[in-house]
Amino acid sequence: MILAAVGVRALRAFAPGNVPRLEQATVNKEVLCFALGISFVGAILSGFLPAWKFSGTTPNDALSRVAVLRPPRQDSAVYVVVW
C-alpha cells in the first residue's frame, strides 16, 4: 500500500501539467487487493503446479519427458552462428 501511494505521488510530481484530473488520482484499496490476489493465483499456477506435477518423479525421469516432448533441432547450430 505504501509503495502504491509513493508511486501516485511520483506520478503527480513528474507528470506533465496537461494531464486531466491528475490531482484526483488515488490508490483504490479494492483494486489493489484484487490485483495482488490475481498475481498470487498466477504465481501458484505457474510455480507450484508444475513442481507438484513432477514431485513424484526423479530428476532423470523429468528430464527425459522434456526431451521426448521437444526433440533436438538439427539446424539449431546454424541459428547460433548466424545470430
Strand content: under 5%
How can the largest sheet be summarized? none
Number of domains: 1
Mean of pLDDT = 78
Shape: elongated
Number of strands: 0
Structural class: mainly alpha
Q: If helices are DSSP runs of H or I spanning 4 or more residues, what is the number of helices?
A: 4
Radius of gyration: 23 Å
- Alpha-carbon distance between the two ends: 44 Å
Helix amount: 55-70%
| Helix-strand sequence | HHHH
- What are the segments in which pLDDT stays under 50 over at least 5 consecutive residues? none
Structure, described:
With 83 residues, this protein is an all-alpha fold. The protein has one domain. Helix content is 67%, strand content 0%. The chain has helices spanning 2-14, 29-53, 59-69, 76-82. The longest helix has 25 residues, at 29-53. It starts with a helix and ends with a helix. The mean pLDDT is 78.
